Each structure stands twice: as C-alpha cells, then as structure tokens.
Amino acid sequence: MVMASAVSSNVVVLVGAVFLASAVEMVEALTIVVAVGYTQGWRSAMEGSVVALLALSALVALVGPALVHFPIDVLRLIVGAVLLIFGMQWLRKAILRSAGLKAKHDEDAIYEQTVESMSAIPSSTSRDRTAFVLAFKGVFLEGLEVVIIVLTLGTSARHLGLAALAALAALAVVGVVGVIVARQLSRVPENAMKMTVGVLLVSYGTFFGGEGLKIHWPGGDTMLILLVVIYAVVTWLFVARLRMVIAPEQAVAP
Amino acid sequence: MRSASSWALRLVRGFARFWWDFLVGDTPELFLAVVVIVGIISLVSLVGHDNVLAVILLPTLSVAALGASVRHAWRASKRR
Fold first, then answer.
1. Is the ipTM of this complex over 0.85?
2. Contact across the interface for A95 and B70, Cβ inside 8 Å
3. Which of A11, A30, A61, B77 is the most exposed place for a label (fewest CB within 10 A)?
4. Whole-angstrom Cα distance, residue A37 to residue A76?
5. Could you list the pLDDT tens digit for every one of the 254 residues in chain A?
6. Among A86, A92, A246, whose Cβ lies nearest the Cβ of B66?
7. What residues make up the domain containing B68?
8. Which chain A residues touch B62 with a CB distance below 8 Å?
9. Least CB-CB distance to B58: which of A96, A206, A246?
10. Do A88 and B37 touch (CB under 8 A)?
11. Which residues in chain A touch residue B42, judged by CB atoms under 8 angstroms apart?
C-alpha cells in the first residue's frame, strides 16, 4: 500500500514537472512564432515551426533508445547534476522576479525583440527565409530544452513514455491556448509556473543525483515529496526575506 | 570539402554554445556550486559511507548555493 502510494506520488511529480517545464518552454517558442507570423506572414512561421518539430522528433528517436541502455547510476548522477543546475537557475530567476528585482514577464520582451528584429529587415526575397529561420530557431532551441527534460527525467524515473505523453499534453494545451489568446501570452502566469518547475527540477535533481551517488533516501521514493516541500518552503522564505530587505530601500529611494 | 568542414565546425560550435548557455549562462556560480556539491557528496557517500550525513548535506548545500546566488544577484542590483 505504502509502496503503491510512493510510486503514484513519484509519477504525479514526474508528470507535473515535465508538463509545467514543457509548457513554459513552449510558451516562449510560441511567442517567437506568433511575433514572426504577425510581422512576416504565417506561412514561413509555420514552415519553420514544423521543420523544427520534425528535427526534434528525429533527435528523440535517435537519442531516446540509446539513453535507456545507459548504466542507470551514471545516468542518474549526470541527470541529477543537470537538473540541479537547471532547476536552481529557474528558481533563482523566479525568486528575483517575485521580490521585484527582475521584470515579471519575458514574453512581452521576447515579442517586442522579435518584432523589432523583423522590422529591421528590408523588404526583399530573403524576408521569408529569415522568418523561417527565426521560427525554426525559436521552436528548435526551446524544444531542445523540452527534449532534454523529457529524456532525462523520463529515463531516470523509468517512465519515458509517460514523460513524453506529459510533454505532448503540454504541447496540445499551449497550442490551443496560443490560438485563443495569440498575442496576449504575457497573461500566462509565467513566474508562478517557473517557480513551481524550479522547485520540482531541484527536487528531482537532488533525488536522482543522490541515488547516482549511492545515497539511500529514507522512505525511498516518498522522500521526493519531502524534498519538494523543503524546497518550496525555502523558496517562499527567500522571497519573503528579499521583499523585507528591499521594501525599506525602496521607501527611502526618491 | 571546405564548406562541409566549415558546416561541421559551425554545428559543433553551436552545440557547444547551446550546452554552455544551458548549464553555465549568466550564473556560473550555480554550475560551480553543483560541481563542488557532487564532489563533496561523492566523498561523504562513496568514500566515507556516511549515508545520514549525505542525506542531510545534499539538500542543505543546494539551498546554500541557491541562497548565495540570490544574494549575489541582489547585491549586484544594489550596485547598479
């Protein structure tokens, strides 16, 4: 009974982490595609996106099966370290945003930046090619991060199929929301999502990294839930402390 | 032949740049911290065989690294 609940809680955390992380990356990719589509036409933007998705699928087909045959302890150590770094980067950014030390949304800046770079290009036959390349790069690079998250988390937790399904679900949700809200992507609660993903990635990084270094976690997989709680509380404390320190400084500033 | 090798070189450079941005980016302190944490936990767990200490140290050091990086960013923002 305890074993079954530990496995199911592990699966819930895995699906949640992959879904949210994929959704955040896909929102960023969608922002670029929408900006290119609005300014240079949808045909090149869509073509660039589709080719990028095909390239990513080929990459998954190539690397995915090879990773499954990798020694599990070595894989978990590498994955744990990568997730720790990546998760801490996300958490740091989310904490600084929540405390008001960083702008809350990337999407507006990404959109403006893409539109600006597109409008700087003179009207010529190379316009479509540039739009294609921009859409391709946006989808491929953000998608590559999704692929890394799916492959690393999926293979380490031995639920690669489930991780891929969670990413596909995120793709479907972001795609539908993208069609509905189009240019209003900044309304997506990006920082709350990034903070949650950061907590989940750091928790997984700690858990897998520890297993790769032969740590026997008390309670087995259940420890993952405790790690999520610990990192969530610590994050909340960091934000509260930063706000407390910053508030008097802002009151003194003219 | 030359264009093929320059294409391969660009590909390798792009691949290396992606991983550099992905793992190091603008927070090299976090990358270094994780390398150090893995080293310390390896010593404690694989050499010292102290599981309890490793269980406590790994999340504690991760929290400390995150805290130090946030503090560094806050101080940098004060200087600007």
1. yes
2. yes
3. A61
4. 40
5. 444 555 566 788 888 888 988 888 888 888 788 877 777 777 888 888 889 888 888 887 787 777 767 777 888 898 889 889 989 998 999 999 998 887 765 666 666 666 666 666 554 444 567 778 888 888 888 888 888 888 888 877 788 888 888 988 998 888 887 777 665 655 656 778 788 888 988 998 999 899 999 999 998 888 988 999 999 999 999 999 999 888 776 665 55
6. A92
7. 24-79
8. 84, 88, 202, 205-206
9. A206
10. no
11. 213
- Chain A: closest CA distance from residue B3 (Å): 20
Q: Which residues of A touch B43 (CB under 8 A)?
A: none
Establish if B19 belongs to a structural domain: no
Nearest CA in chain B to A102: B77
| B69 domain-assigned | yes
B1 falls within a domain: no
CA–CA distance, A231 with A199 (Å, rounded to integer):
6
Which residue, among A140, A206, A237, would best test binding to B if mutated, counting the most B CBs under 10 Å from its CB?
Answer: A206
Domain enclosing residue A29, as ranges: 2-252
Nearest to A217 among B38, B55, B65 (CB): B55
Find the CB nearest B58 among A215, A238, A246. Answer: A215
Name the 3-class secondary structure at A76.
helix
Instruction: Report the number of distinct structural domains present in chain A.
Output: 1
